[in-house]
Task: structure prediction
Amino acid sequence: MTTRTSLRLGASLLVIATSSLASAGGVVLQPKAGAPLDGLSQVQIDRFWGGRISYATPFTPANGLGPIMNKSNCQSCHSNPVGGWGSIGVTRFGTENKGEFIPLEELGGSLLQALSISDECRENLPPEATVTATRMTNSSMAFGLIEAIPDGDIAAHEDPLDADGDGISGRVHWVLPLESSPTSPLRAGRFGWKAQVATVLTFSADATRNELGVTNALITTENAPNGDAALLGACDTAADPEDHADETGFTYIERVTHFQRYLAQPPQTPKAGMTGETVFNSIGCAKCHIAEWTTVNSKSLEGALRGKTIRPYSDFLLHDMGFLGDGVQDGDANEQEIRTPTLWNLRTRDPMLHNGSVSGGVFADRVSAAIAAHGPIGEGAASAAAFSKLTTAQRAQLIAFLDSLGRVEFDFNGNGSVDIEDLHVLASYRGATGVTADSAAAIGDLDRNGTIGQVDVNGFLAAAARDGLDPTADCDGDGIVDFVEIYNGSPDADFNGVPDDCVVCPADLDHNGQVGAADIAILLNNWGAPGQGDLDHNGITNAVDIALLLGNWGPCH
Ligand code: HEC
Ligand code: HEC
Result:
């Protein structure tokens, strides 16, 4: 009975707590990777969640899956988080003639579909394929925002002839979106390892057809297994296009586009000012991994996407990456060229690089190996060499900076969510001053005022609520919630988020450690009213409360 009451109380307090605390002191928590953008309308939020369901729902042969495909839904590959990168790769194949890539389209190239709806319909890697390359699943975080970067702003960073002589000559991959008329101007590609796509809708249509085998309004014909039209005729039963509008009025490719366009940019904690970023800039990383972009301020865009500053750390340009080239020509991108990937949420990425060649170990190992792979030839060579000459301290600073990309505020232990261990770390910094972006405490300095104080504690409570903890729990009912008591120094040796010395004795109205006659007197004083003595919190002090009090008679324990 008591538990139920306090749970109910807790729930209503929680609502107040999260809405008022999330903006405590005017400071708002950054969305987590995989969450929707801030500032969406309710209609848009509904489309985000509806699209996310479509993204995760498997197709079946009856509604269009296959006949050849790589998976039955998007989420199987884009899994960390949903819409993010994944550890599954796909295979590209082709052959080569005088150094030129031939995609072997007549044999089903260049993308291999490794699965099929039945054995007879399989696509196999043909013996003619002398070139094969693996491409890892990369992520769709903040794709509405990236889509909204003006073409001209990307093109402004091109330097195809390396006029400034710095060894870096990125270029735009100009492409035509599938939804554009053939005569419309080309757009600056930005999505895919070869920047081969400019819009989210085009990528969605392409992936729906090529990864799932589902034909749609933008790609109406099926992939034939190894290019065999007769086999396709025998295997494919669903009529094309297989993608239709559902009860929302949107087709599948439109629904998954909603989801990806409304994904927020992953957090960066601390937000700015780390020495490691200065190192990053000084050794030339930022020449390709450009930190900041602003989306177009156009009325035709949703408010949540318009005129926003984002920090993806990419120039979205193609670079000759030397040995990292994959040998595959993709549109206008040649065999050596790879597009600079975004670095947000890098901290959780395993494996790294387009082919997944760097995997395992701790974050610092993977990052160091990925950077080393930028050399010894190609446009990344100079910065890879500069990295190898850094002092141990500078290297640690650079890695700490890269580790801030995707880190959730207050997530000191870096496991992706705010938990009791993080509360203990925050408590160890209580009242700390002189906190800089390089201090370990900076992860908890939400308002970036250099001290760990009230706004930060309130922020922690909001972050904890977002991750499913109950920041309103108050075991001794003294009006100070447990997390704040622990922050203030109450021991919590078992890390359960409840102070170890908590005395649960609600009937001890005079707080003398005993339930006795004095408490009955207080209760009777309040007879018929809410407040002290109303032990079941039903708004009136009455016989039920006396019974509760008598049931707890004697010393508290
Ligand atoms: C079999 C695994 C797999 C499945 C299933 C899959 N993808 Fe992908 N996705 C990838 C790979 C691999 C890449 C990188 C492709 C490339 O650059 O050539 C990618 C890239 C993307 C990108 C560009 C990401 C970037 O950072 O540039 C988008 C957008 C995308 N996929 C959307 C989808 C959608 C939508 C679906 C479902 C209709 C889907 N994917 C299904 C593996 C998959
Ligand atoms: C010439 C442009 C360029 C420069 C300079 C450059 N990078 Fe890169 N970076 C790239 C490209 C292109 C890739 C993708 C290579 C691949 O996957 O094969 C990449 C990949 C990475 C990755 C792996 C990302 C992932 O998602 O797998 C990391 C980490 C990285 N770069 C960090 C750095 C750092 C740190 C520096 C400075 C030492 C640096 N880069 C300098 C272009 C550049």
